[in-house]
Each structure stands twice: as C-alpha cells, then as structure tokens.
Amino acid sequence: MSGTTSRSKAATGPAATPRNDSGAPIVRFDGVSKTYDGRTDVVRALDLALAPGEFLTLLGPSGSGKTTTLMMLAGFEEPTRGSIWIEGRRIDHVPPHKRGIGMVFQNYALFPHMTVAENLAFPLQMHGVPRDRVPARVRRALEMVRLPDLGGRRPAQLSGGQQQRVAVARALVYEPRIVLMDEPLGALDKQLREQMQLEIKHLHESLGLTVVYVTHDQSEALTMSDRIAVFHHGIVQQLATPAELYERPANAFVASFIGESNRLDGTIDARDAAACRVRLPDGSMLQATPVGDLAAGAAVVVSVRPESIRFSGANGGDGTANRRDARVVETIYLGDHAKVRVALDGGATFVVKVATREAAGLARDDGVALAWDAAACLAVPPESR
Ligand code: ADP
Ligand code: MG
To answer: 0.90 cut: is pTM over it?
Structure first.
C-alpha cells in the first residue's frame, strides 16, 4: 500500500532530499476553531500534528468535539478559523474525495441492496479505477480483514462483527494513506470489540497507515494508540502517550478521565522543583508531586490512584509521606483483586485497590489506616477551559 511506500521513501537517506521526511507531519491542524451557531466554539484553537504512520486517538466525553475535528479533516465540515494541512498542502477547500482519506463510521453504512463485493467496488468506481482492476483490489481488501469468502453475501447476511470488518475493508480498498475512524466498534459487544481493536491495530502496523481514531472509551484508546489527544469542551487537555497520560496527567480532567483516581481539592502551601506540600480545606497537609508549573497559593487537585494506596496496618509504612484514618464503606470483590471504598475523616471517599485476601477480613465501618507516597500523590491544575 502507499503507506508502506512512504516509509521506504523516508528511508532513502541523505541522497534523496535534505528535508527529513519522517520529521514532517502528514496531517497538521493549525489554530483550527469551529462554531456551528456562530456563538460557541465546539473546537477551540486546535493545534495538532501527526507523524506518518502514527495511530492517534481523539478521546473525550460525548459532545467534546471529536467528531467535528474528524469531519473537518475528512472535508465534511469547514473550519471557522485556522487551517488544515495534509503532507504540506493546505486542504481546507479540497473536496473530501480528493483528500486521500478512508473513513469508517459507527453505523457501518454499507449499502443493504449490494453484495459485500459490490460495496467494496463502489468507492473504486467512484475514484475511476479501471474496471478490470477492481476485482483484484476487492479480493485483496477482503483478505486483509479475513473475510475472503463472503464477497457474494449481502450485509444483512453478516454478523455485526463481519459487517464492521467489511466497513474497514471499504475504507482501505482505495489504499488511502490516512484512515479516519469514528467510534467504529461502538455497536459491538465487549469481546468482539476487543478482538477488533487488535485487528485494526495490526492492520495499521502492517499497512503503515496513519490513523485518526475517535472513541469515548479510555481502555480502547489505551490499547490502540501511539498517542491520545484528550478532548474536553473542544480543547485538547493533553496530547501524550498512554503511559504519560496515566502517570503524569496534565490536569484534573485527564486524571479523572483516564483510569480511576481519588481526588482532593487543595492549595499549594510550599514547593520546590520536585515536591510540594498541599494544604487541604481542613488545614491538614499532604506531601505531593507537582505536575506543571504551579506556584505557592495555586488551587490544585490532588490525585491518587487506587493501586497506590496501602492499608498500613499495625506494623507499618513508617516513613510513608501521607497517612489518613478512614472507615470502610464497602468492599467489591473482582476476582484477581478487590476494591475497598472508604470514607476519610473529613468526608472524602477514596477507592483503594488491594489483593483479594487483604479485603477478605474487612467489614463495613471497620477503621483502616491508609498510607501513600508523595510520588504517587500528584498535585495537578484544574482542567483547561
Ligand atoms: P463528540 O464527537 O465529541 O461527541 P461533536 O463534535 O459531535 O462531539 O459535537 C461537539 C458539539 O457540537 C456538541 O455540542 C454538538 O451538539 C455540536 N454539534 C455537532 N454537530 C453539529 C451540527 N452539525 N450542527 C450543530 N451543532 C453540532
Ligand atoms: Mg462523536
């Protein structure tokens, strides 16, 4: 496919061009804003650059601007301000079918009256691919999604998972370098969704595709992506790798949206480069790690992951920076681990993730001592608005 061609082109070395091909973005949003009603920007001053071959996911709650962003890249919506570039060419006014982009939507939108093969041939005919080349390309696309024998069926004769594979094949049949997918697995059950996540990921790798993927499902985003742009209120709250998002969330929204986290509001009381002390409303202090440039006096959210908290018990955790007494609210058995919901003195509720056996002896209203390190206690700014 053409995606692989671009990789070999990038590898031709200094003789080819002085410009480093692998360093140039394949897709770039430059200050892109979008309003539908002329009053509210649903996408706000978006800057985004994708490397060739990258798998980028737009993750965020419903209404955060993900689909609008994708539609502007595809050419079905126009930016209100700013510009969009593909391979160094400004494409704001290039019609959708001339952008070299394949698309997969949540509602597969296969033509019900056509066979699978006819559904796949359709975009090729639209693009003027010579008639005699069509069957081979249709066959190849069906093999890619491991449905080589189903070309003669109609969509209604396929399972949901098979229909979704056909939709993926249809996006790939024209051999685009860039593929956009908008919640493509939303209609599938959990097991099939997880299987398809890996299949799409493998297609991305083997074909060298650049993928922009939209989902509101954080575990899907973590599984599939090279990088994730976390959207909220039309603003990218953070653009980073899955591990960075989980371990160093840039603000309170990211900390709560990616994985589970316990939260306390406070104020920076003092800080140096690597550590800070946070004052809580009751006057007590926590030892924390500041993320970003937060000065003394700044309002912060303290975020602690459930797996970072220990029950310190009688013997211990001496030297652990943060300790609090709490009461058990409930224990939730989850097979390989358990979650214990506890109420801290002062009112906040925390979730603590522990080994199943540690939770076994706990009953409602039991007193427990919690301990957590400063390194696992992040002080982050409130979300960007
Ligand atoms: P997401 O895909 O993250 O759920 P969308 O991009 O679809 O978010 O929507 C962002 C905001 O723009 C929402 O408030 C939505 O109601 C609004 N919106 C989306 N499409 C249109 C449209 N065609 N006309 C008017 N408002 C729209
Ligand atoms: Mg959407």
So the answer is: no
